[in-house]
Structure formats: structure tokens, C-alpha cells
């Protein structure tokens, strides 16, 4: 039942719309903080651990926990900042706040510490891994350094980094804007502070766009910016046939304007370098075989296969596996100098199922090989992780955008005889709760 905002008397059951005072004690996965109200956990948005806030209950269906959104900060954290996006500020009604910058009220360094806490907590609870402090440092210092900032973000306060932005069109008013925080209601905004200058320039924030459902703004690093319109009722993805050029360090890549590419301008180079370095370390330890059955799963346009080749040299044998046919075409093009490179269009689970049925010689080459995988947010999942453990490659380099999915898969891999030998994390989504991790597993 929806009620008007009231001050909840102690002991009364929580109702949607009720306003309660909360002492915020921790951070949870998903960009919300944790508090307790009369024994019940409350996940509260737009707060910072350590604060006392007034919050409006938005979900009270479950007995064990409720959800709420901060409406007033009663005792502010020293890390609270004016929101980088005025349309997402806590002074606005929660229903009118823009979405996609849920950490924008927190100092950048604290954002990274909170992300590190989420990663260590997930690894402990779901992965069975206790991340220890570096020698001579306490855990707080180690946590502060665990999630690495992308180059330039300190100087820019983490703004202007996005080379891809999706906006939506309100079906009733035809107005263009982001979805609201935690809603699918289009919010009108005057600016897009996380977007880079090219996107800010072409964003149709004042326009009305009848018959359009989505507006994708794409600013490739070595090509003209694009506005891709997804029409109402149309199923084909806008920009799927529009190749654009991206530069990663000095290396050129062709990708579809409407296909997958990392959104932070520095993220392709950061992940390329991190994977290249992980492979170099394995090579140095004599654990990487360039001639084995190496795989780049969820390979997109071949960015990480190219990183493997940069470490291992032009003799590398590697197969990228990707479900989007246009991305596979681009991967073939991007890896054309690699004689032992092969790009396959397939779902990863189906491709691995085929490998599991293949001849002993093929299975043996996979066993000697290294698998790089970079799944979408849902993670590789139980089936793919189980298939990987059966194929049993020598090393697995796991790039993950969801720390809980990574932690769950870590547990399966460790239970199957893999040791977690390296873990890094990158803050390539400042002012949001998202971040990327890279974990290296070696078969014992
Ligand atoms: C996080 S992106 C990584 C792409 C690439 N590694 C990169 O860094 O540019 C995940 C990719 O997996 C693809 N994908 C999603 N589900 C898949 C599946 N079940 N099998 C194969 N590819 C899949 C998506 O199309 C997307 O290109």
C-alpha cells in the first residue's frame, strides 16, 4: 500500500512512503548502503556509511529487509560532496533524481575504498578468499589502493569519461533523457557530466523525439561521434552495421558503433595492458604456452586476444569466441596479422560443450592453454565455469564487471584445483558503483 510520507512511530511496521531515521553502517553490492531499523536490514540509496540520514521507504515487501532512499542528510560524512550531477542530488525528490551516477555525492577516493570493500566482502563471503593487508600496511591502506584509478580521473574529478551513453525517450512526452535512479521514468536533464565533450555536444537533451525509443551516443576515439536512434518497435540494434575506428595505445580496432566497447575512454587501454601484463607474468613463470589451445571467451572485437598477442608475440595461437556475428567479423579483421588467430561466432557454453566432445589431442592443447574470459555483467555462470573446470586449462584470466559473480566463480574454480594468484581492480566507472576486476587463476 502506498501512503503519504509520515514519520514512522517506533515499533510500527514499515510502509512504503514512510520516513525513517537511519544510522548507515556499511556498503552493499549494487550501490546502496546498509542500515538497520528495528532489527530489519535497510538498504538505503544516496547515503554514505557513517552518516545519519532520513530516508523514505521504497520497498518493504520482504520480512528480512527493506529498501529506502535518503531524503535528508542529518549527520554528513566528511566524504560527502555536492552531487556532480545536480539532477541526481539528494535535495531533489527521489522520484525525480537522474540515474546512473549513484556515487556522485561521494569523494572519489572514498568511492574507490567502498568499491574495494564490496570486492573484499564478496570474495570473503562467496569466494572463500580473505584478502590480506600488504606487508607493512594496514588493511585500510591496502583497500584504499586496491581499486586503481584510471589515468586522468583524479585531475577531472572523474567526469567527462564516457564515450558511450544511452538515453531514453518518454513515450508520452517524447522528451529525451536518462532513466531516473531506480526507475524507468525518463528524467529531463541539462547536462551529462559523465559524458565526454563530443557526446555532450551532440546530446539532444532539448529535443522531442516521437517514434524513438533509445538514443545511443557514441564517441569513438578515432572517428566522428554518432547518434544512433532505436525506433519504437524496431528489433534490429541501431549501429550494428556501422563500423567505427578506435585507437588503443597505437593499435587500431574496428568495432560496430552499436556493438560492445568499453565506455571509459581509458578502459580499453587499461584492460589491454592489464591482460598483457598478466600473460607476460605467466610467460615469465614458464606457465604460458603460445602454441597451446588459448581462448579469448566473450571476445567482442578481439581487444583481449590482441593483448595476449602483444605479450606472447605473433606466433600466438588463440581463438576468440563471441555471440555477436558483427563483433566476430571485426575481431577477424582486428586480429588479421595474427596467423594463429581465429574468431568464432558462438555462444560460449555451446563452444565449450563442443570442445568437451573433441578429440584427445584438442583437449590436450586446451589443457596446456590459457583462457581469458570477459563475460557480461551476469558473469560466466555455473555452467560455463563447470565446463572450464572440466577442460582444465593451465591458467584462467578472468575479467569481471560484477564482483559477486566473480566471487561465486572463484569458489568453483578454487574447489576444482585452481589457485587465485592475482587480483586487480579498476575504477573505470567513476561516480557509479560499478568497477572492473581482473583475477588470475593457475591450475595447481
Ligand atoms: C564485457 S563484453 C567483453 C568484450 C571484449 N572482451 C572487450 O573487452 O571488448 C562481453 C561480450 O560477450 C558477448 N556475449 C554475451 N553473452 C555471450 C555468450 N553467451 N556467448 C558469447 N558471447 C557472449 C557480448 O556480445 C560482448 O561482446
TrEMBL record:
Q: Which UniProt keywords apply?
A: Methyltransferase, S-adenosyl-L-methionine, Transferase
GO terms for biological process, alphabetical: rRNA base methylation
> In this protein, which residues make up the domain named TRAM?
13-72
* Listed InterPro entries: MeTrfase_TrmA_CS (IPR030391), NA-bd_OB-fold (IPR012340), SAM-dependent_MTases_sf (IPR029063), TRAM_dom (IPR002792), U5_MeTrfase_fam (IPR010280)
- Stored Pfam families: TRAM, tRNA_U5-meth_tr
Tell me where on the tree of life, at the top rank, the source sits: Bacteria
State if Methyltransferase is listed as a keyword.
yes
- From the UniProt record, which GO molecular function terms apply? rRNA (uridine-C5-)-methyltransferase activity
**Residues holding S-adenosyl-L-methionine:** 262, 298, 322, 374
Show the active-site residues. Answer: 401
Family membership, please give it. Belongs to the class I-like SAM-binding methyltransferase superfamily. RNA M5U methyltransferase family.
Xref: PANTHER family:
RNA M5U METHYLTRANSFERASE (PTHR11061), TRNA (URACIL(54)-C(5))-METHYLTRANSFERASE (PTHR11061:SF30)
Q: What is this protein called?
A: tRNA/tmRNA/rRNA uracil-C5-methylase (TrmA/RlmC/RlmD family)
Q: Which organism is it from?
A: Leucobacter luti
Amino acid at each position: 500500500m502506498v501512503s503519504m510520507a509520515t514519520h514512522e512511530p517506533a515499533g510500527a511496521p514499515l510502509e512504503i512512503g514512510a520516513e525513517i531515521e537511519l544510522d548507515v553502517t556499511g556498503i552493499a553490492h549494487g550501490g546502496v548502503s546498509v542500515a538497520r531499523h528495528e532489527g530489519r536490514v535497510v538498504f538505503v540509496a544516496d547515503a554514505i556509511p557513517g552518516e545519519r540520514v532520513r530516508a523514505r521507504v521504497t520497498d518493504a515487501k520482504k520480512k528480512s529487509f527493506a529498501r529506502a532512499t535518503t531524503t535528508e542528510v542529518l549527520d554528513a560524512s566528511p566524504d560527502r560532496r555536492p552531487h556532480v550531477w545536480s539532477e541526481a542530488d539528494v535535495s531533489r525528490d527521489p522520484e525525480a533524481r537522474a540515474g546512473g551516477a549513484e556515487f556522485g555525492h561521494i569523494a572519489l577516493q572514498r568511492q574507490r575504498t567502498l568499491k574495494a570493500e564490496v570486492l573484499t566482502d564478496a570474495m570473503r563471503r562467496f569466494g572463500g578468499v580473505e584478502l590480506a593487508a600488504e606487508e607493512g600496511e594496514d588493511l585500510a591502506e591496502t583497500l584504499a589502493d586496491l581499486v586503481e584509478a584510471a589515468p586522468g580521473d583524479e585531475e577531472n574529478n572523474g567526469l567527462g569519461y564516457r564515450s558511450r551513453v544511452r538515453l531514453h525517450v518518454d513515450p508520452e512526452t517524447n522528451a529525451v533523457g536518462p532513466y531516473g535512479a531506480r526507475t524507468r521514468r525518463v528524467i529531463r536533464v541539462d547536462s551529462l557530466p559523465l559524458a565526454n565533450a563530443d557526446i555532450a555536444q551532440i546530446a539532444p537533451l532539448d529535443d522531442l523525439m516521437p517514434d524513438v525509443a533509445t538514443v545511443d551516443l557514441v564517441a569513438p576515439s578515432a572517428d566522428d561521434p554518432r547518434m544512433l536512434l532505436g525506433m519504437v518497435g524496431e528489433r534490429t540494434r541501431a549501429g550494428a552495421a556501422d563500423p567505427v575506428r578506435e585507437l588503443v595505445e597505437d593499435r587500431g580496432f574496428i568495432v560496430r558503433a552499436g556493438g560492445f566497447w568499453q565506455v571509459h575512454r581509458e578502459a580499453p587501454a587499461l584492460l589491454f595492458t592489464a591482460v598483457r601484463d598478466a600473460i607476460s607474468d605467466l610467460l615469465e613463470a614458464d606457465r604460458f604456452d603460445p602454441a597451446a589451445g588459448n581462448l579469448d571467451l566473450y571476445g567482442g572485437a578481439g581487444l583481449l586476444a590482441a593483448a595476449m598477442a602483444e605479450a606472447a608475440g605473433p606466433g600466438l595461437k588463440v581463438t576468440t569466441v563471441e555471440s555477436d556475428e558483427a563483433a566476430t567479423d571485426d575481431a577477424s579483421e582486428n586480429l588479421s596479422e595474427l596467423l594463429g588467430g581465429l574468431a568464432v561466432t558462438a555462444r560460449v557454453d555451446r563452444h565449450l560443450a563442443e570442445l568437451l566432445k573433441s578429440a584427445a589431442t584438442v583437449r590436450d592443447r586446451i589443457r596446456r592453454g590459457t583462457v581469458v574470459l570477459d563475460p557480461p555483467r551476469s558473469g560466466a555462470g555455473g555452467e560455463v565455469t563447470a565446463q572450464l573446470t572440466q577442460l582444465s586449462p593451465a591458467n584462467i584470466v578472468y575479467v569481471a564487471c560484477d564482483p559477486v559473480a566473480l566471487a561465486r566463480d572463484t569458489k568453483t574454480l578454487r574447489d576444482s584445483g585452481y589457485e587465485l594468484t592475482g587480483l586487480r581492480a579498476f575504477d573505470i566507472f567513476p561516480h557509479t558503483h560499478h568497477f572492473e576486476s581482473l583475477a588470475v587463476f593457475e591450475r595447481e
